[in-house]
Design a protein that fits this description.
The complex is a heterodimer of chains A (404) and B (294). By secondary structure, chain A is mainly α. Chain A is built from 14 helices and no strands. The longest helix of chain A has 32 residues. Chain B has 2 domains: 40 residues, no CATH class; 238 residues, Alpha-Beta Plaits. In chain B, the strands form 4 sheets. In chain B, strands 9-1-11-10 form a 4-stranded mixed β-sheet. A 3-stranded antiparallel β-sheet of chain B has the order 3-2-4, with no helix packed on it. The chains are: A mainly alpha (404), B alpha+beta (294). Chains A and B meet through α5 and α6 of A and α2, β2, β3, α4 and α5 of B.
């Protein structure tokens, strides 16, 4: 026990150091030097911050859907994951907003964006509103989950009802409202061939589900390993693996037709992007498609859905989806808008990557600390009720697990 | 919150939700928030009065363009474009008559022969295509701008309110003409090079060609039109059927860039090779101390 706590403290310190490094660069970008120190340019205006931002929003929606399955579809075996998934959802949403603030030129004006509709035709207004609403829903859900757990696992009727309504609202919101407008945000841009497809909003939703499920599988497996006790049974994990396989299959299906239509139509811009994807950005493209394909193969067979196979498939999925976001956002911009503009390059700079790593480290740090501080389902011991003890005198005391 | 009972709360939520669907109502809320926080994007001070009934347009005669890029220099000086923004508002592409498109704007030698500023002859084997903001009627940048910082004026000019821009760069990705530039760094322009008629931009906002709004709304031509040695650029009022622009569009062979996107640009390109003899003019030496014009 002592060894693990030592290792944990060392890990937390490391995370804090990385987060501090990222925070320093974040301040540098936000207040001191401006976004000029990123690798973006007038030709590639959106860089890795937007990649991270879209990935985090997707993960937030996907993870909370997994966490809310208990209320939505009555899967009781997902219960231990519930609060953790909501926490992952909240923290990913926070990271997404941090990415956005690092990216924009005027962060303080941006903060007013959800409150002020100045241009009703802009998709960005509505997406910024969804963060606020979704964040509020998730926070409310977390509040009631913690409250119910504190009162011994059973809340008052009112609390249970509110929690259930909030959960269903959040589930619907996550499925339909949170990530689809982001797809639309890109799909509205008719100037870029790769984005301008009505397939993008449903594609975003499916990819969000895949990334959320993959992250939650990883969370479940790592938590079980650290606690040396199973958080959820292998059957539940296997079920999640099946879900993930389904999402990956739909993603690959949509991907396939997206590219086939783009190549078949034979527009110069589409061919240009295909040329880039199979040429300069071929490694990323292979990571994206082959990663998803291998993960799908692992998950489809029962022999693959062991702890080892599941963790491998989930990690592959997360990496492949990050590569997919990179392909979608950056490769689409490196395709020149005028023929003969030459090769357009984008390379993230060191401060930029520091901010990306820092934000992720900060979210991880917060997750670990909050998991220790917040009373979660499995930390409340079952009341030991022997046959000879009078139930009337049995008092269940909620216990907080101390850090370490 | 404690005093609200559930019914009242639901009512309030309904009102809040309803107003989200009704933007004009929310705009009032936004105004109040802006008052309180001091974030008050008023209309730019330098906004000049729109000439009633005018609609500006430009015709670029590709048959006359020699690719000297004087328009680029002049525009940069006129509009206080800092050196950190490169290319400036106007990009010039070089195309080859026979083999289609070649070359690109950041080639150090456009045109290939002769120094950029001294080159005066019309070449038979090359075409030059200047590209700038097209001031589209259905501008994608105006559609996607979340704060309404980009807006279209009735005289056809797409303007940016630098006090409203949040620097999200959505407009830059949405523009099919690569016409918008972002202030990645704090723009620095030496005092002697500054044009007092044009406001200086701050860091973190988007800027672009304004059709020299400070000149055209006072009845002058844009600076690029004045700078063109071969009179390849013609500027005028599209609403006036007697103007040179309207006549050229009606009579000459022309095209607009990326018309298939239905952005309805206000810049027309004439394609007929001009056989007129080149006007002689005294070549200007390149201005000293200007960087970022490759």
């Amino acid at each position: 026990m002592k060894e693990t706590s030592k290792a944990l403290h060392a890990f937390l310190t490391l995370l804090l150091i990385i987060a501090a490094w990222g925070g320093y660069n974040f301040v540098l970008i936000m207040f001191v030097k401006g976004v000029g120190i990123t690798g973006s340019s007038d030709l590639v205006p959106w860089g890795v911050f937007i990649v991270g931002f879209v990935f985090c929003v997707g993960t937030s929606a996907g993870a909370s859907i997994i966490g809310l399955l208990i209320s939505g579809f009555g899967r009781d075996d997902y219960k231990p994951l519930g609060t953790r998934a909501i926490l992952v959802g909240i923290l990913s949403l926070m990271s997404a907003v941090l990415f956005l603030l690092a990216d924009v030129g005027n962060p303080f004006r941006t903060m007013l964006l959800p409150a002020v509709i100045r241009n009703p035709t802009s998709a960005l207004v509505y997406t910024s509103m969804t963060y606020v609403l979704f964040g509020a829903l998730l926070l409310g859900e977390l509040y009631y989950a913690v409250k119910i757990t504190l009162s011994g696992g059973v809340g008052s009727d009112m609390e249970e009802k509110i929690a259930k309504v909030l959960a269903i609202l959040a589930l619907l919101f996550a499925l339909m409202v949170v990530h689809a407008p982001h797809g639309a945000l890109f799909a509205f841009v008719s100037a870029r061939e790769m984005w301008n497809t009505p397939l993008l909003p449903p594609h975003f939703v499916v990819v969000a589900l895949a990334s959320g499920t993959a992250v939650m599988i990883l969370v479940a497996i790592i938590t079980s390993k650290i606690n040396k006790s199973e958080l959820v049974g292998l059957e539940t994990l296997s079920h999640m693996g099946q879900l993930l396989a389904l999402f990956i299959i739909i993603t690959l299906f949509l991907d396939f037709f997206d590219f086939v239509v783009m190549i078949y139509a034979g527009k110069p811009a589409g061919l240009e992007i295909w040329h880039l994807l199979t040429g300069r950005f071929a490694p990323l493209f292979i990571i994206n498609t082959a990663g998803l394909f291998v993960a799908m193969l692992i998950l489809l067979f029962k022999r693959g859905r062991t702890i080892k196979g599941l963790s491998m498939a989930s990690s592959l999925t997360v990496i492949a989806i990050i590569a997919y976001r990179f392909n979608l956002i950056i490769v689409a911009q490196t395709a020149p808008l005028f023929p003969g503009m030459g090769e357009i390059y984008y390379m993230p700079t060191v401060p930029e990557m520091a901010v990306v790593v820092g934000i992720i480290a900060w979210a991880l740090f917060l997750y670990i600390v909050l998991i220790k501080v917040l009373p979660l389902e499995e930390t409340v011991p079952e009341p030991e009720i022997g046959p000879d003890i009078d139930h009337r005198y049995q008092i269940t005391v909620p216990t907080f697990r101390k850090p370490g | 919150m404690g005093k609200l009972n559930r019914r009242e709360f639901v009512k309030l939520a309904a009102v809040a939700g309803g107003s989200a669907l009704w933007p004009p109502q929310l705009r009032v809320v936004g105004d109040i928030i802006e008052r309180i926080t001091g974030f008050n994007p008023t209309e730019p001070e330098e906004a000049l009065e729109v000439i009633p009934g005018a609609k500006f347009g430009m015709v670029i005669d590709l048959g006359k363009c020699i690719g000297c890029r004087r328009c680029m220099y002049a525009c940069k000086l006129e509009n206080n474009v800092p050196d950190t923004i490169s290319p400036p508002y106007i990009m010039v592409f070089q195309t080859q008559s026979k083999t289609g498109v070649s070359g690109y704007y950041h080639s150090p030698k456009i045109p290939e022969r002769g120094t950029t500023m001294m080159y005066t002859k019309l070449r038979k084997d090359k075409w030059y295509l200047p590209v700038q903001c097209n001031h589209c009627d259905h501008a994608p940048c105006v559609k996607v701008c979340p704060t309404g910082a980009s807006y279209k004026d009735p005289d056809g000019i797409v303007m940016i309110n630098y006090k409203k821009c949040i620097g999200c760069r959505y407009c830059m990705t949405a523009c099919p003409y690569q016409a918008r530039r972002f202030n990645w760094w704090e723009p620095e322009i030496p005092l002697e090079r500054r044009n007092p008629l044009v406001p200086l931009r701050e860091e973190g906002v988007v800027e672009k060609c304004t059709f020299c709004v400070h000149r055209t709304r006072k009845g002058k031509f844009t600076r690029c039109v004045e700078a063109c040695p071969n009179k390849a650029r013609i500027f005028g009022n599209l609403n006036d059927p007697g103007s040179k622009v309207s006549k050229l569009i009606a009579s000459e062979r022309n095209f607009r860039l990326k018309e298939e996107l239905n952005t309805v640009p206000l810049i027309w390109y004439l394609t007929q090779r001009s056989e007129k003899k080149m006007r002689w003019y005294k070549p200007l030496p390149p201005p000293k101390g200007i960087r970022g014009l490759r």
